[in-house]
Amino acid sequence: MTNDQREKGGSAGSGRVPTREEAMELLKQYNKSESLIAHALSVEAAMRHFAPRYGGDPDEWGIIGLVHDLDYELYPELHCVKTREILEEHGWPEKYIRAVMSHGWGICTDVAPESYLEKVLYAVDELTGLITAAALVRPSRSLMDLTAKSVKKKWKDKRFAAGVDRGIIERGAGMLNLEITDLITGTIEGMREVAGQIGLEQHGESQPGVTPKS
Ligand SMILES: [Fe+2]
Ligand SMILES: [Fe+2]
């Protein structure tokens, strides 16, 4: 950290509260991929949804969701590690950095999720991917008519969105003592708030040439 950055951001844990604007600025600085930005917005929305249920601050939870994969596009092999570096350089509080690190528990970090904030982040991260994939194969290509039941059907089909690690979602739900159905329902509800921004808002018309799959 340079002196300049120290003055701008303060030291980690200084109590400085990062704003959504700066989180978004960092996200756009490090990510050009539309799908990664949509993923960040999805996780942010899910975090905001669950925050009040666990006594958390939706702004704080949302900002952490927004930057959780900050380094993934440019430094996939240093995932999480590089985000710590970047956020430290910008003087982000340790609470935020630790939470981001914990989503990679057992994959790219050894930081286990401990707080509700961290457990929810861990649980919804992969799930947003499954929900997005499940919405995209609907005739409406929308989140608005997607149900938890429909997502659970896709969950059981191991070839569907095969890259989504169902085990991580199950572990996350277990940490929260939450039924998978509740976790899915809440995550869909959260993501609906940003459906327009993530391209999953269209409702009611079938896409020409697309065969409904569920
Ligand atoms: Fe990640
Ligand atoms: Fe992620």
Write a concise synopsis of the structure shown.
The chain has 214 residues and is mainly α. The protein has helices at residues 3-9, 20-30, 34-50, 58-67, 81-89, 94-102, 116-136, 148-156, 166-176, 180-192.
How would you portray this structure in words?
- This protein has 214 residues and is mainly alpha-helical.
- It has one domain: Hypothetical protein af1432 (Orthogonal Bundle), CATH 1.10.3210.
- The protein is 55% helix and 0% strand.
- The protein has 10 helices and no strands.
- The chain has helices spanning 3-9, 20-30, 34-50, 58-67, 81-89, 94-102, 116-136, 148-156, 166-176, 180-192.
- Helix 2 (20-30) packs parallel to helix 4 and helix 3 (34-50) crosses helix 10.
- The chain is globular, with a radius of gyration of 17 Å.
- Bound molecules: fe (ii) ion (2 copies).
- One fe (ii) ion binds next to loops.
Task: Give the topology, please.
Blueprint lengths: L2 H7 L10 H11 L3 H17 L7 H10 L13 H9 L4 H9 L13 H21 L11 H9 L9 H11 L3 H13 L22
Helix pairs in contact: 2-4, 3-4, 3-7, 3-10, 4-6, 5-6, 7-8, 7-9, 7-10, 8-10
Keywords for this entry:
0% strand; mainly alpha; 10 helices; single chain; disordered C terminus; disordered N terminus; binds fe (ii) ion; Hypothetical protein af1432; 214 residues
Poorly predicted regions: 1-13, 206-214
**C-alpha termini separation:** 52 Å
Which structural class matches the secondary elements?
mainly alpha
- How many individual helices? 10
- Main sheet overview: none
Q: What general outline do the C-alpha atoms trace?
A: globular
The CATH class assignment is Mainly Alpha
Looking at the structure, the CATH topology is: Hypothetical protein af1432
The kinds of small molecule bound in this structure are: fe (ii) ion
Number of domains: 1
The arrangement of helices and strands along the chain is HHHHHHHHHH
Mind telling me the C-alpha Rg? Answer: 17 Å
Q: Averaging pLDDT over every residue, what do you get? A: 91
Strand-residue proportion: under 5%
Number of strands: 0
Helicity range: 40-55%
CATH architecture field: Orthogonal Bundle
